UniProtKB/TrEMBL annotation:
It holds the Pfam family Mur_ligase_C. The lineage of its organism: Bacteria, Bacillati, Actinomycetota, Actinomycetes, Micrococcales. The keyword Nucleotide-binding applies. Its EC number is 6.3.2.-. This is UDP-N-acetylmuramyl-tripeptide synthetase. Pathway: Cell wall biogenesis; peptidoglycan biosynthesis. Catalyzes the addition of an amino acid to the nucleotide precursor UDP-N-acetylmuramoyl-L-alanyl-D-glutamate (UMAG) in the biosynthesis of bacterial cell-wall peptidoglycan. ATP binds at residues 104-110. Its cofactor is Mg(2+). Residues 330-457 form the Mur ligase C-terminal domain. Belongs to the MurCDEF family. MurE subfamily. Residues 14-74 form the Mur ligase N-terminal catalytic domain. One of its GO terms (biological process) is regulation of cell shape. InterPro entries: Mur-like_cat_sf, Mur_ligase_C, Mur_ligase_C_dom_sf, Mur_ligase_cen, Mur_ligase_N, MurE/MurF_N, UDP-N-AcMur-Glu-dNH2Pim_ligase.
Amino acid sequence: MLALHSEAPDVLLTGITMNSRDVEPGDLYLGLPGARFHGATFAKDAVARGAVAILTDASGAVEATAAGVPVLLVTESPRDIAGDLAAWLYGTSTDRPLTLGVTGTNGKTSTVHFLDALLTQLGRKTGLSSTAERRIGDEVVVSSLTTPEAPELHALLARMHEVDVDAAVLEVSAHALTRHRVDGVVFDVSAFTNLSHDHLDDYADMDEYFEAKLALFTPERSRKAVVSLDTPAGFAVAERAGVDVVTISSTPGVASDWTVTIDDEKPDSTAFTVHSERAGSFSTRVPVIGRHMAANGGLAIAMLVEAGISPNEIRSVLDRDGGILATLPGRSVLVPVVDGPAVYVDAGHSPDAFAKTLESVRSLTRGRVIMVAGANGDRDALKRPEMGREAALGSDVLIITDHQPRSEDPAEIRSAVLAGAREAKPDGDIREIAAPELAIRAAVAEATAEDTILWAGLPEKEYREVAGVKIPFSVLDETRAALTEAGWVTP
Ligand SMILES: CC(=O)N[C@H]1[C@@H](OP(=O)(O)OP(=O)(O)OC[C@H]2O[C@@H](n3ccc(=O)[nH]c3=O)[C@H](O)[C@@H]2O)O[C@H](CO)[C@@H](O)[C@@H]1O[C@H](C)C(=O)N[C@@H](C)C(=O)N[C@H](CCC(=O)O)C(=O)O
Ligand SMILES: Nc1ncnc2c1ncn2[C@@H]1O[C@H](COP(=O)(O)OP(=O)(O)OP(=O)(O)O)[C@@H](O)[C@H]1O
């Protein structure tokens, strides 16, 4: 499959990358075909930055050869070997920290942040890769994709090993599995959270999306798996996984190795007990609302026990600290208001995420639930009416607004969400306010101290992408400003 394309002198490779902009001197540059470009187009740039060899396919051969360094030709799909090549070059098959991975439609980011917090509480040095953040110990690494491309991922693990990171916690997206980004990584423990409607722009149907996730649970990718039975897909993963599986459930009445039961729900935390026959009970809390978040916290604890960390050590740290001390970026963030409405912002952008967060908000609200919601452009359009439906069914007042239209017409996105909402609740109080800064102000104007406002669907970023342009915008700052202008005190 591999062929040397030029009269190649010996070269010493010290790194590997598939992005010309990230090339370091001594790197092997992978010039791979993509949706927009062929990576070989950037071969000369890569060499100018210090690439000492190029790997490409037949269609990239001419441009790669013109760059003047040895070229390796891969006749079939070169992406398929990138992970193994990177693992070999960086030695990450053996020299890497304890590696934990989480996949599923929702709860990946939350679970890896719970894992990271708990490991830190246990005195372990951690590395983390999530949608929200990428970090090696205290060193922050810039991230764009949820799961980095294989060469970047292996470099990350190698660097973690170099600086004595004890455990790496990684979010594994379906795209990462489909696109070979985690190839060459064998997770010590991997986990499955749930499966619900999302990403049907990238996958033909839910079956294909499920198969993408299932690929994590093979001996090439995982040693052991903790699988949540909270959605029907969990049962199918447990049945079809090619590795040892232990199951966990937060659904009453479902038999599983680990169970999560809710003990208490507060506006700023959820107390729960996670139990297994072998490890006993852990009664603790997560600093965020929702039974689903307790399920994620229980999953994190179960993963650490299954990874071999002593249950008693975990129990004593949880008791000492009063729970898992995580800060979840943008996930059900409580905006403090003195004697006012409870206000949350949540990054959830799928029908099930809306439903779960609304359910927990409802159980904590004496008055009305006022929701500000929107959907993003250039992503699965089929889920928009379903998001509208869940939003309408779970709230008393629903304000549909613009989030990140990206290249799409925002009015069309709103109208799809509105259609689902109005169909589900024809007599509901459902409004359309395009500008998000006005939508949150309308929600605040409506709210009494007994009510809860939930603004869901926008990540905690410093911008919104509109017509391809990133406009400065902070969902948290905007919410605080709206509350202050309305006379509420926000400490
Ligand atoms: C569908 C998909 O995943 N596409 C990713 C993919 O694009 P591509 O292979 O089509 O690449 P391309 O842009 O045509 O470029 C071809 C090649 O030239 C290289 N290049 C390109 C330009 C340049 O100046 N130099 C250079 O070397 C690129 O690195 C690439 O290897 O490789 C690019 C480089 O790594 C990624 O930026 C791009 O992610 C796009 C932006 C994306 O939106 N991905 C989403 C769908 C995604 O992966 N999301 C999941 C999370 C989903 C979730 O759970 O919410 C994720 O893990 O992030
Ligand atoms: N276990 C769960 N079940 C259902 N919904 C959940 C669960 N955990 C979190 N959510 C909802 O999904 C939203 C996103 O959570 P999180 O960021 O942890 O998921 P994710 O899988 O990383 O998603 P993404 O990478 O697409 O942001 C949360 O803000 C919450 O609304």
